């Protein structure tokens, strides 16, 4: 008999690890912050497991609760990150607490829906083999190129001349990458390409602002959003935050 894993166990573990990491960060103990960030980022990564299972039709839960859970966690982490970056206002701290309480509600609703779901590695492997990743392969080089460029720009901010030169290069790279991605989207039946062009550029501009302000962690979040929006569109994922309108 194939050994099955209860999805709820993975979900609850990531939930507890996430808030344990947030708790350590809020204590702001020198030497532990890096460990806490790794813990939180790992928990966020595993929090995306339901995303894949929903889109592979291996699990059926309310997508609104799933989105609420993931987005709330991301906002809690970003607010904690800003709080530690000298934005130590009590209002931000109270907002972190308030959103965490809201997250407990969405986590409870998800727990109710997945508590009896068990999956084996073979079931997941079989579903993955049915997925056509040709569309994903077309954009992966561009997404990887954007991420590498974003990482370089986020870490090369020592003086004004460097910011200016790297910023110009980064802009031209994004011009090339956005148009290549838009070309792939068009070829795969996505019609509202101008809307997505604007979204990609907004993410890029925010990324540059965060990089110049030395908010490097936010740059990685923005690059992750770039990936997520593009891949969700191409694969028409049910959990996509930005969706293509169905033609009537």
Automatic annotation (TrEMBL):
Keywords attached to this entry: Membrane, Transmembrane, Transmembrane helix
Q: Which residues cross the membrane?
A: 7-26, 32-53, 65-84, 90-111, 136-153, 159-177, 198-223
**What is this protein identified as?**
Uncharacterized protein
């Amino acid at each position: 008999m194939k050994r099955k894993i209860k999805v709820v166990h993975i979900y609850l573990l990531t939930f507890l690890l996430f808030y344990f990491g947030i708790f350590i960060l809020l204590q702001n103990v020198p030497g532990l912050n890096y460990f806490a960030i790794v813990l939180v980022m790992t928990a966020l990564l595993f929090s995306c497991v339901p995303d894949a299972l929903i889109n592979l039709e291996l699990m059926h839960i309310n997508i609104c609760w799933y989105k609420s859970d993931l987005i709330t966690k991301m906002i809690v982490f970003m607010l904690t990150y800003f709080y530690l970056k000298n934005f130590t206002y009590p209002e931000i701290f109270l907002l972190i607490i308030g959103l965490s309480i809201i997250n407990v509600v969405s986590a409870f609703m998800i727990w109710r829906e997945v508590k009896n779901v068990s999956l084996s590695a073979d079931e997941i492997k079989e579903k993955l083999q049915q997925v056509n990743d040709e569309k994903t392969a077309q954009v992966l080089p561009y997404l990887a190129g954007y991420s590498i460029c974003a990482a370089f720009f986020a870490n090369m901010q020592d003086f004004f001349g460097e910011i200016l030169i790297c910023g110009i290069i980064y802009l031209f790279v994004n011009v090339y990458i956005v148009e290549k991605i838009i070309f792939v989207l068009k070829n795969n039946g996505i019609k509202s390409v101008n809307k997505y062009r604007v979204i990609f550029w907004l993410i890029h501009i925010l990324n540059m602002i965060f990089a110049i302000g030395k908010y490097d962690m936010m740059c990685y979040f923005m690059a992750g959003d770039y990936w997520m929006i593009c891949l969700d569109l191409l694969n028409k994922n049910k959990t996509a935050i930005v969706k293509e309108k169905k033609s009537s």
